[in-house]
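Input (structure):
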């Protein structure tokens, strides 16, 4: 039988990495049990600052539309429902159910009690150094459904804070 060669690249395959979420959840549980919740937040913030460095740059340069494009792309790949209300100085993001939480529950992975930090801490870290902040308005621990708010920094007087360089 003649040798057959198939030439493929990763981009030829459907985007799936859902089991990664189960591994991340296990890592967060480990960190929390051994080092406490602050270690989980520190790990996620450090990761986000490095991994999302290009997004952080885009957020600084283009503002909230860059974040909206990123979130739509991510949640579309994950097959999740996302709603984004974007104005000049604020963006409200609603997720009907977190696709990672859905997958973990369906496959009986343990979901870290601090899984919500993968939204809150990560988005806060991405916003660092930009004129924006992130607030996790609500989060459902069972489904991962959430509402988040990105907005301009405000000083105590209500005026925008100047970016520190």
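Output (sequence):
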């Amino acid at each position: 039988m003649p040798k057959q060669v198939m030439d493929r690249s990763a981009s030829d395959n459907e985007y799936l990495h859902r089991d990664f979420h189960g591994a991340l959840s296990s890592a967060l549980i480990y960190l929390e049990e051994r080092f406490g919740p602050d270690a989980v937040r520190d790990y996620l913030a450090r990761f986000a600052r490095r991994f999302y460095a290009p997004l952080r740059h885009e957020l600084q340069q283009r503002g909230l539309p860059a974040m909206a494009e990123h979130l739509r792309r991510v949640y579309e790949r994950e097959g999740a429902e996302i709603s984004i209300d974007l104005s000049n100085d604020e963006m409200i993001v609603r997720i009907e159910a977190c696709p990672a939480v859905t997958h973990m529950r369906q496959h009986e992975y343990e979901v870290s009690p601090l899984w919500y930090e993968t939204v809150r801490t990560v988005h806060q870290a991405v916003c660092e150094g930009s004129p924006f902040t992130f607030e996790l308005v609500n989060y459902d621990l069972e489904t991962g459904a959430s509402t988040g708010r990105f907005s301009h920094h405000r000083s105590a007087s209500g005026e925008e804070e100047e970016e520190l360089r």
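Notes: Strands lie at 82-86, 90-95, 132-139, 146-152. The longest helix spans residues 18-35.
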